[in-house]
Amino acid sequence: MDLKNTLAELESKLTEALKQTEKLEKLQDIKAEYLGKKAELSLLMRHMKDLSAEERPVFGQTINAAKARFTELIELRREALEAQQLEARLHAEKIDVTLPGPNFRLGRPHVLNRIIMEIEDLFIGMGYTIKEGPEIESDEYNFEKLNLPKDHPARDMQDSFFITEDRLLRTHTSPVQVRTMLEQGGSQPVKIICPGKVYRRDEDDATHSHQFMQIEGLVVDTDTTMADLKGTLLTVARAMFGEHRNIRLRPSYFPFTEPSVEVDVTCFKCNGNGCGMCKHTGYIEILGAGMVNDFVLSASGYDPSIYQGFAFGMGVERIAMLKYGIDDIRHFYTNDIRFLKQFST
Amino acid sequence: MNISLKWLKELIPYTVTPEKLGSLFTIHSQEVDSVEKLVDAEGLVIGYVQTCQPHPHANSLSVCKVDVGDAVLNIVCGAPNVAADQTVIVALPGARLPGGLKIEKTVIRDEASAGMICSLSELGIDYKYHHEDGIHVVRDALKPGTDALAALHLDDHVLSLDLTPNRADLLSMHGVAYDVAAMLDRPLELPNVSVEATGDQAVTIKTETPRCHSYYGRVLKSIVIKPSPQFMQARLIAAGIRPINNVVDITNYVMLETGQPLHAFDYDALNSDTIVVREAQAGETFVTLDDKTRTLHAGDILITNGREPVALGGVMGGADTEVTSETTSLLLEAAVFDAITVGKTSRRLDLRSESSLRFERKVDPEKTVYALDRATALFMEYAEAELVGDKGYFDHTASTDAPITLSLEKINSVLGGNYSAEHVDSILNRLHLPFSRNHHTYDIQPVSRRQDLITYQDIIEEIGRISGYDQLPNTLPNTVAQGGLSLKQNLRRRIRQALTGLGLDEAVTYSLQQEAHIERFSFNHETPIKVADPMTDLHAALIHTPLTGLYDVAKHNAARRQYDVNIFELGTCYTQAGEVERLGLLMTGSYHPYRWQRTPQTDFYTLKGVIEALLDGLGLPAPTYQPIEHNDLHPHQAASLLLEGEQIGFLGKVHPKMTSEDHLSDVYVAEIDVETLLKMSPEHATYKPLQKYPSVERDLALVCERSLPAETVLEAIKAQGGSQLVHLDVFDVYMGEHLSDDQKSLGLRLLFENPEKTLESKTVDTLIEKIVEHLHKTYGITRR
After folding, report:
1. Rg, C-alpha atoms of chain A
2. What is the dihedral sign for C-alpha A148, A150, A156, A160?
3. What is the mean pLDDT of residues B549-577?
4. What is the three-class DSSP state of B239?
5. Which listed CATH number (3.30.470.20, 2.60.120.280, 3.40.640.10, 3.30.930.10) goes with A111-343?
6. pLDDT digits (tens, 9 = 90+) for B27-80
7. Binning pLDDT at 50, 70 and 90, where does residue B12 land?
């Protein structure tokens, strides 16, 4: 029989066998059947000895070419089957990518503490130290050293929770200023801010709370000016409410400062054009401030003929309410999870 | 204080608009609450009711013919008091009334009606100022067709000032005029007053108390009580005071004008030519003109007729000497009473009045005689008063103080401005403050109308505010200092960062809580600190632990169907020994809940895991635990938390009795002392070189008594394992089949390392055998 025909017949048998094979494992058997020692192709080699010296190389080359061809056919089929198998596995692994993942979430710092931290960081950047003090204060530190003697009408403005005749829950963080100045001994400059909880006898409602947070600032040195106060507060207003804000200072009254001012920021809703939020004035009141009253400097051990200073105080709840448009001060203290979760880090 | 701008314009002729004046006031003086028209209406004229007939088809209506100058209108009116021959206010067709109401020609029950006859309430004047139920009948026969608001002096604006307590001067029109004069740099035109005394019927004034600084009295006779003139009524209404009659109105008017409160006694009822001012005795009673019997304290100021009290000085007159419609003669009082005494008396008796407010904030003693004379002149003009003698008085008011010395340099150094002497001169002149200047040194004479100007700082404020603070540059302090957080402040932030990173939300709760709740979750059993006079029982005592508030937060949220609550609070706690800071944690529901896969409910170990992650993150060693008991905690799921043997807090499940009463599912709480954490936190982390040689891992399954705490087993293994045992963990706990009821199996994973060489399997096997043998000998533990 003609070798070519034999090989062609073998190849078509192999092709058919591969076609019928759907399993990878069976390829091994096919390989043995067509390329193994006992395979027909191997048996054909035995005819080599019957051939002439001229015919042998041609015969050998033909057989070897067929071997390579058969190997290639098997490998091609292997690749195809492997690809099929992978495809099947991947298909089996199909998931609904639109289903949600587990509810991992970052917790939130309380919005009041968040504002405090923001303001602290701003002032740390300007070289201020953060000072704290006790919430249960003496009448002397909370009032008397701040130029609020026993009969002063302004005590009404901050009606307080007394514990004994002489001890009370502080009505502002100003006693921390007094404590710091006394600590510094009347000769070192002071540059501090004092955040903390304060308490006043207000009925709790949407805009009043018997407990709230305050941040006060104090700078005392030989050359501290009202212009410095203005520049500092402009920095705060812009950091808290946006860089295009402006502020205005208007006269007010606090027993511990003279001159005293209220500070308004240009309305961040209408940019100062007038809207419901700023009651059509273009401005929103954000804090009280002034130059430290000589009485307070003296009472805290600083010689007012050498030292002068500025002080300011703001309500943290007010800042938060303005900044985020929060409509009820009680939300800060009832801690509804739906409220807490809104203030992302 | 409400300011009639028509009145103000008489005292200080200004040209700016009411709105501009309002904004100037806000920037240079005091906060303006509002600038509004006294009557915000258009199209009102004076009308004369020619005829008034009952409406043919409606009993309660009348049909009037009203002369409005250029026409006679048919107007249907519903007011019962309308009648022919009345002068009235007519809203013509096209008129606009307050609240946007438009008046149009209309037909009412078949009768044409071209306009409306108005009541004062319809003009937006509150009922409390007039007490009129029907239409307003104008007293004077004004010409029909004239502008009604102008004719009735109601064409006015009201500037409403929110005064700070130091600016007593702005409780008078004069004071406001002075401030406006300074702001606008315009001359003042205050009315001059002179009263010629005739007759010789004088009163004698005596005092027995230093609490009355001065007292002037004058007798006025043949008084005719009647309504005060329209302009005065309109101005009183603008100021927020109800017109009564000419006598009361004049005293109020002069008080508004000058800031000096006046009081008028019925001279006949007074029945004496002598006034004696003295202090009340404790328990003395007095009937004030509201017919209430007041019990007095020692020191209250009493005005007497020499026999019995007739007024409570500066606070309220007496019922017996009240001016009535029968009154024909007056004793007019203008006095200065001690501010603190009037304040105390009026607060105690809850009798705060326009008069007590002014005394409390200090009146200008130099205005007393002016006010008496001004009122006298007005009584003569509007009450037909007859002067029958000169004023009686005593006056102990101190003369003005020494000048305030201040240098230009100080002004500029405090304000941070660069004002010239000429500028400061001009501001002081505009403020009418007398001064002298020697080069750059000012001597400023205090004035009695500005009793708030005492120190040089007060003067600097005047210069700053009248110049305008917008004139100052924006600078930053020259003071250079190192800013930063203290270790404690820093720790607080790290705790906050760690816990929010772990998914917990931060809460802030009230420091004042119900007294009965203070012992909740507290191991501090001392008496809580209470406020002396709480506003409510809900906020009466200071907390010992943040958990008091956090538990209520869980309740609040559960009531709103928010069941997964994982929160913490860094809060001050208040003990008899002082304030301490504690960290409270509360977890309930699920933690990091899966949505559609199985979600584990938070348990004791969840909270423990959070705490251990926190401590680990802060660089602290692993804590140990000891069972503890507390009434509010589960008796078998509560432990104290120890760090290197020192107790730093506790954790536990809230007692199921408490949570079921509060309709809560399982709640887990923990408290950690922040001060101790601070003490124990390392300043910085320590570095250990990474292990070079491979480590060997072994698992060990041990069977032990169920009651034996895992920690005991772990500690024993650590002790036996020595330094080569670098990690030990529980990976399985099993109880049930194949074990007896009092047994449990612990699956442990041990990791061995040697920093110097590769560990041989044999070495580890020997260590394991040693550990197992020790556990067996000591605790009867066997390998499974």
Report:
1. 44
2. positive
3. 96
4. helix
5. 3.30.930.10
6. 999 999 999 999 999 999 999 999 999 999 888 999 999 999 999 999 999 999
7. very high
In 3-state terms, what secondary structure has residue B19?
helix
For A20, counting Cβ atoms within 10 Å of its Cβ (0-12 exposed, 13-18 middle, 19+ buried), the class is exposed
Q: How far is CA B40 from the centre of its chain?
A: 31
| Choice among A12-16, A333-337, B5-9, B607-611 with the minimum mean pLDDT | A12-16
Counting residues of chain B whose pLDDT is more than 90, the rounded percentage is 86
A291 touches chain B (CB under 8 A): yes
d(CA B594, CA B572): 35
| Residue in A197, A262, A293 nearest the CB of B457 | A293
Tokens 């001159």 belong to which residue?
A259
Q: Check: CB of residue B71 under 8 Å from CB of residue B51.
A: no
Distance in Å, alpha carbon of B562 to nearest chain A alpha carbon: 7
Contact list in A for residue B461 (CB cut-off 8 A) is 251, 258-260
Main-chain dihedrals φ then ψ at residue B243, nearest 5 degrees? -65, 140
Q: How many angstroms separate the CA atoms of B252 and B258, rounded?
A: 10
Higher-confidence residue of B202 and B446: namely B446
* Residue ranges per structural domain of chain A: 3-92, 111-343
Q: Dihedral (C-alpha) B305, B309, B312, B313: value to the nearest 10 degrees?
A: 30
Distance from CA of B572 to the nearest CA of A (A): 9
Q: Say what angle helices B456-467 and B408-415 make with each other, to 10 degrees.
A: 70
pLDDT confidence tier of residue A281, bands split at 50, 70 and 90? confident
What residue spans of B619-760 are helical by DSSP H? 656-661, 674-680, 710-721
Distance, in Å, from the CA atom of A94 to the CA atom of B418, rounded to the nearest integer, reads: 77
pLDDT reading at B477 higher than 90: yes
